[in-house]
Every structure is written in structure tokens, then in C-alpha cells.
């Protein structure tokens, strides 16, 4: 077997070891973090494999599909980790016992206090921001893999326009461009820049949007300052509730502070919204202002994937919620943490359902070509956030059959979703009597049975099933491996030893009884006797002859 195959197959015992270690620690968020890291390590290996293209075991299409699968899986584990830590962590005191019921927010409170107050006491607002956090971390991972284009390292914008103005001084230009170089000149004169500058400026705004999309406002501000666009840097800082002094490079010599935004946030937002509807501005510039101010339709100019649309919709709705709080306070009202907690004890499920409907509608209208796993993983995310845990498991059990025609990809997805339902079982969100849970675990058992290296991983997963299924599954597996292990009785005896340690003598004998009955189900009227108790004490049941005698009724010899 090639190293590539063994590297990919090693994820099966790695996931099991992580889960078994967590049974002692009882830290689900830490377990999901380990799963996330395991996916990341396999993803890096696959990316290197794709670059070298020297794999013997996998085709290029299989490697490409596995890369997409592990990227999607990593992002889902990240979302589950972040939400699980907020919803189920015993240390979360922000919403229950540890909150300060006497905390009061008024119109005189600063923006940062208002923002943190809402984040602490409004569960719906907080989960909207958690969705954004997950999407931003995924986008930040993509940014780490990329670098700014070479043409953005010149730190000069509009150079072609400036050169054109010098060259055409005193003469009429063939193309009427701006005649002044201030930032408002294109808008004020209703004239374009030089074509080269228009393209470069569009790429510049695209990268500013990508930084915002990744939650890296400071990086966007720094990039603006490198190009001398301090006015845009200050505009972006308006999105931060309490921006403070933000230091930037100035001409590469000294760090000078930008002025702190101390104006009215409502005025700042109104200004942004007036710019996003200005058709004369480039689409990506409007997308930048829309992204920082929560204007959905303009933000969509910079969005390309389902996750981008989810981030944009969550950003817009969380901004609306914050604006409503500010408006309520501006009317002279006072809000206490107890009041807001009583109103927002549970998340507003219908608000989230409406948001996901909007996201799917936008994706369908734009008909963007997402990867083959988008529908499946987006469905998992939706059901989990809506707390429809049983629906999530049902969708996963159906997706296992439909996820991919590639067996390797299908097996990896089965491994992923089996561990998703196991973590949900540990969180007591579902029961092991739930039929889709049984289907998923048994699918994974079938995956493990394909490789003899993973045979001893099966007992643990069988043990997670309901008591009514465990004995039957053990009997079925023993029937399948009997002939292979007939002359390797030490390994077969190890199976019975495992079962004996877990369940004791009585249930181990019951497994043997079921196994024997399955073997002789189609053998005429033969009714072999169960001869385990007939074996003399001196019989070596770990030998092939002794084991056959004990299980199918042959009379063992003392020498056996």
C-alpha cells in the first residue's frame, strides 16, 4: 500500500482515539477542535498531493473531491465547536447565573458598551455574530493561502490617470478622464479614470472586501493607509463600535494615529447607505461600504458562494438588531440586562429560518457553481443552528447514499457524519434508539469492515448502539470473519475476550448462540447442540479444533 493511502486511512483510528480520550475529559468543544486539526492535517497532505500529482492510489478527480470534502468538513467542525461552546458549555455564565441583572444601558453609553451589552444578553444577536465568526474564520484561512497580487505592491493608485494628465496637458484627450486627482473627482466631475486605473482600483476594493469578509478590518485599514487613502481607512473604522486610536504606517517613516471616530454612528451609517446606492461608484466600492454598514444588496456584489451569502445575511440582520437598540435608547428608554434577557431567553428560530430561506433564494437566483458537497453541508448547518437535531441526523443518513459516486469520498463522509452523531449523542441531543442514528453507525461499520486494519475499531462503535442491536451486530460480524480467522484462532478469541470484558459471560454466550444459529439457518433439520458446557475443562478452546468443537457441537478431544 502506498504512503498516500495509509495517510488517508490513518484518520479512522485517529478519530476514534480522539473520541475515546474525550470520554474522560468530557470537553466536547476540545474534541471538535481535535477533529478540526485532524482534517487540517489531511487537507494539507492532499493539497501537496494535488500539486505533485504523483499519487498511485487516487485519481486526480478523487483527490480534488477529497480536498473539497475535507475543507467543508473542517468548516462544519469549526461551526459546531463554536456553537457548542456557547450553547452547552458549563463555563458560559454570560446568559444565566453569572449575569449582572442590575446592568443598565442608556443613550449616554458608548457604542462599545451598547454592543457588548447586546452581545451578552441577546442570544439571537449573539448567535448571528457566531455565524459571522465561523464564516470569517473560514475566509481568513483562505487569505492565509493567498497573497496580494504583485500589481498591488506598488502602493500607488491612479498612476496611469496622473501620467495621462501630464501627457495631455494643454491638449484635448481622446478619452475624457478626470482632470483632478482628489478622491471625489470621478463622482463630482462624472468622469472616469484611466482604464488601467479603473481595473487596478477594482482589484484594490476587491482585496479590501476580502479583508472585511475575513473579519480583518485592521488589515483593510492598514492596506488603505499604505496607499494613502486615509479617508477610506477612517470610513472603515466606523464599523468598529469602539475603534480607539489606530496606528498606521505613514510614508514608511513613522507611525501616526488616525483620528478616532467620535461622531454619531447613525450619521456614519446613513452616509454609507447613501454611497451604496450611488450607481456611478464601482460595484466593489459599494460592496465595501455595504459590508461594513450591513447593507445586504450592495454587499452581495462581492459575494460568490453560499457561505458568502450566509455571512452577508447574518451581518445585515445583526446590524439591524443593533440599530434597533440604538433607536430605542435614543427615544429616552432605558434597558436593563434582566429586561433584555427575559425577551431573548431563546433564539428567535423564525428569524433564522427566514435568513436561511433568503440565503438559499439568493444562491438559486445567482446559480453560482458551488462544489458538489455544498447542498449537503449547508443543510447540516441550517438544521443545527435551528436546533432541529433529529432532522439533521435524518438528512445525514440520506446523504450518505447520495453524497458521491466515488467510494473513497463516500467512506470519508460516512466517517465524518458518524462522529457528528456520536458527539450529538454525547450532548444528549439525540438517543441511540433513533433509527437514523443506527443507520449511520452501521454504515460506518460497513466502511471499517472493508479494511482488516480497522477491524478492531468496530467494537467501540457497536457499543454505541442500543442494547437490542449490539448482540445481533456482534453475531453478524463474527459470522463474516469466522472463515478468515478459522486458522488464526488467537485473533478470534481476542474478539470474544473483548466482548467478555465488556458484557460478561452471559452475554458472550448469547452472542455465540446467535452466531451459531445464523450459521445453521439454512442447514435442513440439523439442530446442533450448543456444546460449550460439554467441553472438558482441559480443552484448549483457543485452538482451532477446540473452538470448532465448542461452537458447532463437535466432541473435542483432550489433545485438541
UniProtKB/TrEMBL annotation:
Asked whether the UniProt record includes Ligase among its keywords, one would answer no
- Classification via InterPro entries: Nup84/Nup107
What compartments host this protein? Nucleus, Nuclear pore complex; Nucleus membrane
Q: Report the Pfam families cross-referenced here.
A: Nup84_Nup100
Transmembrane regions:
480-500
Q: Name one GO molecular function term.
A: structural constituent of nuclear pore
What does it do?
Answer: Functions as a component of the nuclear pore complex (NPC).
Entry's family note: Belongs to the nucleoporin Nup84/Nup107 family.
Q: What is this protein called?
A: Nuclear pore complex protein
Q: Which gene encodes it?
A: Nup107
Amino acid at each position: 500500500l502506498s504512503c498516500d493511502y495509509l495517510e488517508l486511512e490513518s484518520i479512522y483510528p485517529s478519530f476514534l482515539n480522539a473520541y475515546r480520550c474525550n470520554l474522560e475529559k468530557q470537553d466536547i468543544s476540545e474534541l471538535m477542535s481535535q477533529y478540526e486539526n485532524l482534517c487540517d492535517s489531511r487537507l494539507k497532505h492532499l493539497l501537496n498531493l494535488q500539486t505533485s500529482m504523483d499519487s498511485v492510489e487516487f485519481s486526480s478527480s478523487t483527490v480534488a473531491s477529497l480536498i473539497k470534502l475535507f475543507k467543508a468538513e473542517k468548516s462544519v467542525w469549526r461551526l459546531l465547536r463554536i456553537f457548542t461552546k456557547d450553547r452547552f458549555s458549563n463555563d458560559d455564565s454570560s446568559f444565566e447565573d453569572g449575569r449582572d441583572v442590575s446592568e443598565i444601558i442608556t443613550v449616554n453609553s458608548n457604542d462599545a458598551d451598547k454592543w457588548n451589552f447586546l452581545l451578552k444578553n441577546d442570544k439571537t444577536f449573539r448567535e448571528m455574530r457566531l455565524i459571522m465568526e465561523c464564516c470569517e474564520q473560514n475566509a481568513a484561512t483562505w487569505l492565509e493561502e493567498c497573497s496580494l497580487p504583485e500589481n498591488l505592491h506598488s502602493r500607488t493608485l491612479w498612476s496611469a490617470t496622473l501620467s495621462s494628465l501630464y501627457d495631455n496637458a494643454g491638449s484635448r484627450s481622446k478619452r475624457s478622464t478626470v482632470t483632478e486627482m482628489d478622491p471625489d473627482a470621478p463622482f463630482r466631475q462624472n468622469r472616469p479614470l484611466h482604464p488601467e486605473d479603473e481595473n487596478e482600483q477594482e482589484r484594490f476594493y476587491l482585496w479590501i472586501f476580502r479583508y472585511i469578509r475575513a473579519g480583518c478590518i485592521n488589515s483593510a485599514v492598514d492596506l488603505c493607509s499604505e496607499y494613502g487613502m486615509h479617508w477610506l481607512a477612517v470610513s472603515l473604522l466606523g464599523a468598529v463600535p469602539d475603534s480607539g486610536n489606530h496606528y498606521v504606517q505613514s510614508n514608511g517613516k513613522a507611525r501616526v494615529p488616525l483620528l478616532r471616530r467620535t461622531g454619531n454612528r447613525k450619521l456614519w451609517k446613513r452616509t454609507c447607505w447613501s454611497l451604496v446606492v450611488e450607481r456611478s461608484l464601482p460595484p466593489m466600492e459599494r460592496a465595501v461600504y455595504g459590508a461594513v454598514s450591513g447593507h445586504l444588496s450592495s454587499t452581495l456584489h462581492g459575494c460568490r458562494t453560499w457561505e458568502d451569502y450566509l455571512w452577508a445575511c447574518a451581518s445585515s440582520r445583526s446590524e439591524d438588531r443593533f440599530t434597533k437598540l440604538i433607536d430605542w435608547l435614543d427615544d429616552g428608554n432605558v434597558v436593563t440586562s434582566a429586561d433584555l434577557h427575559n425577551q431573548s431567553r431563546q433564539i428567535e428560530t423564525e428569524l433564522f429560518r427566514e435568513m436561511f430561506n433568503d440565503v438559499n433564494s439568493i444562491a438559486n437566483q445567482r446559480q453560482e457553481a458551488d462544489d458538489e458537497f455544498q447542498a449537503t453541508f449547508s443543510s447540516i448547518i441550517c438544521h443545527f443552528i435551528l436546533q432541529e437535531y433529529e432532522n439533521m441526523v435524518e438528512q445525514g443518513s440520506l446523504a450518505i447514499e447520495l453524497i458521491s459516486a466515488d467510494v473513497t469520498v463516500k467512506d470519508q463522509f460516512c466517517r465524518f457524519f458518524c462522529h457528528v452523531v456520536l458527539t450529538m449523542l454525547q450532548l444528549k441531543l439525540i438517543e441511540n434508539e433513533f433509527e437514523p442514528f443506527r443507520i449511520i453507525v452501521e454504515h460506518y461499520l460497513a466502511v471499517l469492515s472493508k479494511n482488516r486494519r480497522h477491524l478492531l475499531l468496530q467494537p467501540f462503535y457497536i457499543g454505541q448502539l442500543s442494547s437490542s442491536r449490539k448482540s445481533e451486530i456482534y453475531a453478524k460480524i463474527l459470522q463474516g470473519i469466522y472463515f478468515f480467522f478459522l486458522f488464526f484462532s488467537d485473533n478470534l478469541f481476542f474478539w470474544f475476550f473483548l466482548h467478555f470484558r465488556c458484557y460478561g459471560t452471559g452475554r458472550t454466550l448469547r452472542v455465540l448462540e446467535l452466531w451459531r444459529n445464523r450459521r445453521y439457518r439454512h442447514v435442513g433439520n440439523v439442530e446442533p447442540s450448543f456444546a460449550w458446557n460439554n467441553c472438558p475443562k482441559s480443552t484448549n478452546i483457543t485452538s482451532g479444533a477446540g473452538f470448532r468443537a465448542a461452537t458447532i457441537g463437535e466432541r473435542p478431544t483432550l489433545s485438541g
